[in-house]
Design a protein that fits this description.
The structure holds 3 protein chains of 3 kinds.
Chain A lengths: L1 H11 L1 H28 L3 H26 L3 H31 L11 H9 L1
Helix pairs in contact in A: 2-3, 3-4
Chain B lengths: L1 H18 L4 H21 L12 H27 L8 E6 L5 H13 L3 E6 L3 E6 L11 H12 L11
Antiparallel strand pairs in B: 1-3, 2-3
Chain C lengths: L1 H23 L3 H25 L5 H25 L19
Classes of the chains: A mainly alpha, B mainly alpha, C mainly alpha.
């Protein structure tokens, strides 16, 4: 029993728990910036969609996991899990809705090599 | 009746988790709102096997670790593609055959494809999906077979052997 | 605390970048994508600011915003596809008799 209490004490000790949580939050923040840069850089709508889905998964979920490490109580962890679950359920659904609407409306995707690979092929030709 | 009980249990857990105040007044408000929700859901006819898939929770939980690993791998690919100074992406569109039978399994499969960065489902038909991929090498129909098999286990309860199955 | 500030500043910068895409975006769908993405970031930012201020009550607002964000995206897309909010997305299986136009 004492051993279990020790383990629980180590897990809930604020020191390293807060550090890990803050580190995960920082990773999430940096990855959202990368994803936003991708939304600006990519050449057409469908490729931008891929960059935006980095935000929905890696960015938001790492941030929420990090905040769960920082949380002072179990109720807050429960709420964070609810938010994460909701983002995971609705993120791809709205991404699919946008993509399907664009495809149905006849927005043509760029197919084939773009940028460096295309330039390489033109050199060889 | 079983599904109504399941819905009431889920709503009770949601209320207890969200409110965090366990006084008689607040709890009685919770009971009233749960009762109203259950009555409205019953009137809407949301009480069959399809709308409350509680029997699928454990297979779905077994599916999530695989999904998380796939999401991490795909994230690294897309982040590399964004950070490269020269664009060298190769967008493609492929038709992916699915062996999933029920709507739930199809939703799980299509949502997993969209959730992994680098692939987005554009259209869902009866037994195939139109997928837009960032790299041609990553978006081959063979690359989705594993995910399809696992999604149909999570949604249908067994690896279904339809005409789209390859093995 | 500094690491949390890094995360918050990162979210702010990415919202700014997405706003550029929102105003530049050549097609309607780029703009909807940017709005949806900004919404997701605001959900996370609300929760994060709540943690930084030591008031985790903000999580309820974040959860509510996540719900509203999803409905907003679907409503915008529905409006620009059908030019109306009134059309049912699910077709009735049996056509009502006598009331058809």
């Amino acid at each position: 029993m004492e051993f279990i209490n020790d383990v629980i004490g180590v897990i809930t000790a604020p020191g390293w728990r807060h550090f890990v949580g803050a580190l995960l939050c920082a990773i999430g923040g940096v990855s959202t910036v990368i994803a936003a840069a991708g939304v600006l850089r990519f050449p057409d709508f469908y490729t931008r969609l891929h960059a935006a889905s980095v935000t929905d998964t890696l960015g938001a979920l790492t941030l929420i996991l990090g905040m769960a490490f920082l949380a002072p109580g179990l109720l807050i962890v429960f709420k964070l899990i609810l938010i994460g679950l909701f983002l995971v359920l609705t993120g791809p659904t709205s991404a699919h809705a946008i993509a399907n609407a664009a495809y149905t409306a006849g927005l043509e995707p760029i197919i084939g090599k773009i940028g460096l690979q295309k330039a390489k092929e033109e050199d060889e030709a | 009746m079983l599904y109504v009980m399941g819905l009431a249990t889920a709503l009770t857990l949601l209320w207890l988790g969200m409110s965090g105040i366990y006084e008689p007044v607040v709890l009685s408000l919770g009971v009233i709102s749960i009762a109203i929700t259950v009555i409205l859901a019953t009137r809407l006819g949301l009480k069959d096997r399809e709308t409350s898939p509680y029997h699928r929770i454990i297979p779905f939980l077994l599916y999530t670790p695989y999904l998380i690993v796939e999401i991490l791998k795909a994230n690294l690919t897309v982040i590399k593609a964004i950070l490269k100074p020269d664009m060298d992406i190769q967008p493609t569109m492929v038709k992916v055959k699915t062996t999933c039978k029920s709507d739930l399994a199809k939703v799980i499969f299509a949502n997993s494809i969209t959730l992994t960065p680098g692939t987005v489902t554009l259209r869902v038909d009866d037994d195939s999906m139109l997928v837009h991929g960032l790299y041609e090498a990553d978006a081959q129909p063979e690359a989705f077979e594993e995910m399809d098999r696992r999604a149909s286990i999570a949604g249908d309860g067994r690896p279904s052997k339809g005409k789209g199955a390859t093995k | 605390m500094t690491l949390l500030s890094v995360a918050a500043v990162g979210i702010f910068v990415s919202i700014a970048l997405l706003l550029i895409r929102l105003f530049v975006g050549p097609s309607l769908y780029d703009r909807v994508l940017a709005v949806n993405s900004v919404g997701t970031k605001i959900v996370v930012l609300l929760a994060l600011v709540g943690f930084m201020m030591g008031r985790p009550d903000f999580l309820d607002i974040a959860l509510l915003y996540a719900l509203i964000n999803f409905v907003t995206t679907i409503a915008i897309l529905k409006f620009f596809r059908y030019r109306s909010f009134q059309i049912s997305l699910i077709k009735p299986e049996v056509e009502p008799k006598g009331e058809a136009e």
